[in-house]
Amino acid sequence: MTTQLDDLMQKLRSVEAEIEVELAKRREGLRYRLENQKIVFEQEALRLQRQVKVALARYIRDANPKIALSAPVIYSLIVPFVLVDLWVMAYQAICFPIYKIPKVRRRDYLVFDRHHLAYLNLLEKINCGYCSYGNGVIAFVREVASRTEVYWCPIKHARRVLGPHPHYQGFADFGDAEGFREKINQMKDGVKIDGAG
Prior knowledge:
This protein has helices spanning 4-29, 43-52, 56-61, 65-76, 78-99, 122-152, 177-186, and strands at residues 32-35, 38-41. Strand 1 (32-35) and strand 2 (38-41) form a beta hairpin. By secondary structure, the protein is mainly α.
């Protein structure tokens, strides 16, 4: 028996598919395509990108001094990012096989492709790489944590959660003891990562 929540989740998946179609149209408009995971720009698009590139020397010369002085603070986060990344990889490697939780493919979350943009100078490419790493690690960690939550505690919160992970909607409702036990029993053979949690 499907519930209204199941119907809404199906609508959400449908909208996500429509978004992917629109993104493909945008790629065409920006004159690039993906071929076997490789980004291929049309030559004219590359020429136009190079025309708007800000030279590194000018970029540094025109930088706001306060922003330049804050750079060490921003880049100091690389230490906790790397430590969390390594620790979560170790946690997943040790614990997920024991719990029979499907492992998260880290490479799906750490995407480095902005260096292909001809309109970015070297410093902008470094900054983009740093942001890609930081946000990728956070997304990877979130998925590992969400799969852990699916296994150990698939219960919704009583209060609204901002930006819940994709598995959250499949959790038992807060206060539904029978629903919780049913979800836990579903996990006997490992976590079912399929949107339902």
